[in-house]
Design a protein that fits this description.
Layout lengths: L1 H18 L6 H23 L8 H6 L8 H6 L16 H41 L4 H26 L4 H26 L14 H22 L10 H33 L14 H24 L1
Helix pairs in contact: 2-6, 5-6, 6-7, 6-10, 7-8, 7-9, 7-10, 8-9, 9-10
């Protein structure tokens, strides 16, 4: 337990050292995401290789560069400071319409670039594996790009929040808060009240009581967080009723998504017959063991941010 606590403190401080300055220097957060994604890709591919030894670990690891895709339209349009746009200054309706149009344009471009990346990466992955390992390795050829997308896409969503969405830093932090609050509340609710198993074949310790506790805790914290952080004088800012309702829905969906991410990662480990994805974090396992819920929270929060600014 002592090792687990010490590791948790060191990991939290290290993550904070990269993420907190991201408010002013988002490149630090992007660097953190890139390093974490490489570690997660290595851990995940190592586990999958236990069942499918012919998948290409180098290809999977290189795919981490896909996280940088949201930067392409930012640099091409010369709008590096877009991510710093906040709700703290009064906007006219015309400016608001322009901001919404710009957000849509950036999101459309980013989606197109990511789709191109995925198609090209998948093509070369399939060609390489089938050529090097033989035509019978079609499963490995398909799993290789899907493995990459499982890790790369969520972190690309985080980068999109940081560099494209207004108040992106706070939305990015929202994903972390939701995933980790859900995990903590689910753990304590499960320990104290848990009786009914929810996914015993995947995670025997998970219970319905824990899941509900995680949802309730996340709804409370995210509603408070959004009501405080997103409330401002700008025309983009919403009324109190909207913010509370939005916080409740966002907390609910994000908690469900992060718990689903936890179960999905557990299912992969169980099918491979391993307890953890690695030993990088003594007492905790690998980095992917700590980021499994966050991976599903990033796309969910990005969707919430898009809805917030475009409705």
């Amino acid at each position: 337990m002592k090792t687990r606590v010490i590791t948790g403190i060191v990991f939290t401080l290290t993550a904070a050292a990269f993420l907190v300055p991201g408010f002013a220097v988002p490149m630090l957060s992007l660097l953190f995401f890139l390093m974490v994604s490489v570690a997660c890709l290595i851990e995940l591919s190592s586990v999958i290789k236990l069942k499918l030894p012919d998948i290409s670990q180098p290809l999977i690891t290189i795919s981490a560069l896909g996280i940088l895709i949201p930067m392409i339209p930012v640099f091409l349009k010369g709008s590096f400071d877009w991510g710093f746009i906040t709700d703290m200054e009064v906007s006219s309706p015309n400016k608001l319409s322009l901001e919404r149009a710009e957000i849509l344009e950036y999101l459309t471009d980013t989606s197109a670039y990511f789709l191109i990346f995925f198609v090209v990466f998948s093509f070369f992955s399939v060609i390489y594996i089938l050529s090097a390992k033989g035509p019978t390795k079609i499963l490995e050829a398909v799993i290789t790009p899907l493995t990459s997308v499982y890790i790369v896409f969520p972190f690309a969503c985080a980068a999109t929040l940081l560099f494209i969405m207004p108040n992106g830093f706070f939305w990015m932090i929202t994903a972390f808060i939701a995933a980790w609050v859900s995990d903590v509340f689910a753990f304590f609710a499960g320990v104290t009240l848990g009786k009914h198993k929810i996914v015993p074949q995947i995670s025997p310790k998970k219970t319905w009581e824990g899941t509900i506790g995680g949802i309730i805790g996340t709804i409370m914290i995210i509603t408070i967080w959004i009501s405080i952080v997103m409330k401002g004088p700008d025309i983009v800012a919403k009324g109190s009723v909207f913010l509370v309702s939005f916080g409740v829905v966002t907390g609910l969906i994000t908690s469900l998504a992060s718990q689903l991410g936890d179960w999905f990662a557990s299912a992969i480990k169980r099918s491979a017959g391993v307890k953890d994805y690695g030993s990088l974090l003594p007492g905790h396992g690998g980095l992917l063991d700590r980021f499994d819920g966050v991976l599903f929270a990033f796309p969910t929060v990005l969707a919430a941010a898009i809805i917030y600014y475009l409705i």
